[in-house]
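Quick log. Single chain, no ligands specified.
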Amino acid sequence: MRSLEINFQNRSGLNLSARLELPITRPAQQFAIFAHCFTCGKNARAATLISRELTRYGFGVLRFDFTGLGLSEGEFGDTDFTSNISDLEAAADFLAKGYKAPTLLVGHSLGGTAALHAAKRIDTIHSVCTIGAPFEAKHVLHQFEDSREEIETKKISEVKIGGRPFNIGVQFINDVESQKTVDFLPKLKKPLLIMHSPQDEIVNIDNAAEIYTAAHHPKSFITLDGANHLLTDKDDAAYAAKMIGAWVTRYLTIEEEQKEPTENVTVQLGDNGFTTEISAGKHVFLADEPESVGGNELGPTPYQFLNASLGTCTAMTLKMYADRKGWPLEKVKVELNHNKTHIKDSSNPEDKGSKVDVFKRKMTLEGDLNHEQLEKLRSIADKCPVHRTLTETEVRVETEISE
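-> predicted structure:
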């Protein structure tokens, strides 16, 4: 993905810090806004992974710090739930003027509740997803209930949320208590995906049931079993991201780019680590490196793709041959690994020709095949085009630089 650092103004004229994630090799066809959890920020793991995953489905995704949080201007103590909704409207205005009006809102925790409220005020929003969201905004008050009397007395007071200090004003309390999701949700009638963990200790899963019961169809629920409220485990956040991407394509059309059939592949590096987007015909996918070497681990490594190329070509070639012969080959499984091995007795181990690339290929062939057929299929595997490219031909890479 391409990640742009931007700022836009909210309706009070304050600059909000944002990041816009865009597909690398094609223009974004739809735009989404991500609303982060209460007192979190745009760089929370869930916000980052979900935004980037949606770019694989053709979305541009805007994630930003609400007023008074992160790098955004303003004082958090002067904000309330209504101002969060207003910030989402300002984000929609920004996209509509500079890019394309957003069609999807994704909200985490209180950001999910805000997304529901904003969806009824932003006409272009077609679909909404909530993650660990409370049914009513006032649910958040339990996080500083012990300080409520002091806040109401002093009009503003410092409280600790998640171990960090925040100023909470009495207008925030009054505002969240006045907001009633139940009053409008049955009439919203926009596709809704509700995601929640049964083990959520911050927002009980009963809130998901209340949202689901109140909402009009079409509505869907996906459990995030085993996840905590903030989705701090990378695997949990990645799972949520993939489920949102799969769900939203049911309701928002992403047109396939019409291309002539070709063997050409376009590869473009993103703006974060080594994450690289690959466009092959109408298919788009990611390559990456492990986090241990500075990657984001969002896709296979280059050598894993090389192994996959040999493996898929092997399997397809065997299937084609068996079908032509009428042999009962029912299943093909190919396992591969690659390494570089020193040629025996090499006197100059650092020379270019002192090492050989070795692909170890293990094939499992299922079906009522006799010994002669299995042996023939073993030899046919060596005739697959990728195998022959790697072993029988001189390979040259001709490079030019576009200016």
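The radius of gyration is 27 Å.
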